[in-house]
Amino acid sequence: MKKSITIQFSFIFISILAGTILLCLTANVFFLKDFYMATLRSSFIDAYNDVNNSFADTKYVSELTLYEIAEISRRYDVEILIVDSAATVVLSAGMESEDEREQLLNVILSQNDTLLSNTKSKYYFLHTQDVRANQSYMEMLGVLDNDYRFYFRAPLENIENHVAVANRFLIQVSGVAIIIGVLVIVYMTRRVTTPIKQLAHISNRMANLDFSAHYESSGDNEVDMLGRHMNVMSNKLENTISKLKTANVELQKDIERKNKNEELRKEFLTNISHELKTPIALIQGYAEGLKDGIQDDPESRNFYCDVIIDEANRMNNMVRNLMNLSEIEAGKNTAKLERVNLTDLVENILRSLELTFEQKEIKLIVQYEKDTYVWADAFQIEEVVRNYITNAINHIGGDRILSITFTKLEKRIRVNVFNSGQPIPEESIPLIWDKFYKVDKARTREYGGSGVGLSIVKAIMESMDCKYGVHNHDNGVSFYFEVESIKE
């Protein structure tokens, strides 16, 4: 069971307080009377010395001597009777009546032999009881230096009353002291233990990796120093754990990238093996046919050779595109932005494809202003435009329309390449930018596509931080990209 440190400290201090008061009460009850008796004996001795000094080795009693003895009696609260060797009263002090003086004289006379025989000390003490008066006394008898006999007496009733009153007073004061002491102890214990409990709470939160709690310092003692040190330790731990978490996240990302790269590598090897398998098989088959002389006529041999050349060109283009894509993705083929006449660039590409447009009966529509200048890498933008136009030619259908338009935006020029034909299935749109992805594999094989062209477009546009994309229309598909324009 968990015990509060406040309760523990309070219990310890209250126990100490109660034990101390109990010890004082015990000492008061059992030893106060003896202490009073010892004190009274000491007072008697002091009174004896003062009386002895008052006579100063003389037997002459003057008024001064009488005054001094009376003053000694009053000061020490004792009855004094002094007699000479003939038992004649020399003086007395503190006695209320003649009868009392005669009574004390008889005591001296009864103890005279004892006084004369006592050679070791000039005085001794007696504890007597007056049965008639029901009173007890402390008595001191002895001989002064001038051979006078003296008798000191003090009633013990006052001592007993004083002890009883002192005990009652101490008990009452002790009760009040305990109440006040408990309240003070609880208050002070809370003040001392509250910072300790706060530190315990903070350390518990730190153990659970919560470093938001901080010790609020209000002093300059050891506990406050510990709290400030814990604040420093908490901040350092939080920073260290934050760095560790960041490093762990980066490590996790590196692992994910590594796994992804491994998957991409495997996928690439699978795709490239699949893509190269067909042309290699065709080249091998037709080459073996030529070697075996399956067809001896020149026309057949030429056909075989054309197939071998076409497949070799297909593999060469695929390898070239893959190398180009790899360089762009690796950041080796960085874009070199320069002032490019986009209109001239597009028209040069279109002129190189005029024969293809005629053969495929394509209706070309262009909508752009002459001398449209942009900031771009001329070689890479030409690659993007050529891929878009080639892709449009290969997938054209319907009215066989291919259109190229420039649209002016706020700070950019958007180039749209549209071809009539079948729209791209919606589920395939996010995938067409991936390497080797083909919507219609049979048709792609028919025109010799490798599924790498749009991946090159994606890599180029992302390296230039430019937008690109595709839109489906009812009668076809349009691909677009944007580049920064230059105002003339």
Number of helices: 12
Biggest beta sheet summary: 7 strands, mixed
List the uncertain runs: none
What is the CA-CA span between the terminal residues?
85 Å
Architecture overview:
This protein has 488 residues and is of the alpha+beta class. It contains 12 helices and 12 strands. The strands form 2 sheets. Strands 6, 7, 8, 9, 10, 11 and 12 form a 7-stranded mixed sheet that branches. A 5-stranded antiparallel sheet has the order 2-1-5-4-3, sandwiched between helices. A hairpin with a 5-residue loop joins strand 1 (79-83) and strand 2. Helix 1 runs antiparallel to helix 2 (63-76), helix 5 (157-207) runs parallel beside helix 6 and helix 6 (222-292) runs antiparallel to helix 7.
Give me some keywords for this one:
alpha+beta; five-stranded antiparallel sheet; 12 helices; rod-shaped; seven-stranded mixed sheet
Secondary structure topology:
Elements: H1 5-55, H2 63-76, E1 79-83, E2 89-93, H3 98-110, H4 112-117, E3 123-130, E4 135-143, E5 149-155, H5 157-207, H6 222-292, H7 298-329, E6 338-341, H8 342-352, H9 354-359, E7 363-367, E8 373-376, H10 378-394, E9 401-408, E10 412-420, H11 441-447, H12 453-463, E11 468-473, E12 476-485
Parallel strand pairs: 7-9
Antiparallel strand pairs: 1-2, 1-5, 3-4, 4-5, 6-8, 8-12, 9-10, 10-12, 11-12
Short structural summary:
The chain has 488 residues and is an alpha+beta fold.
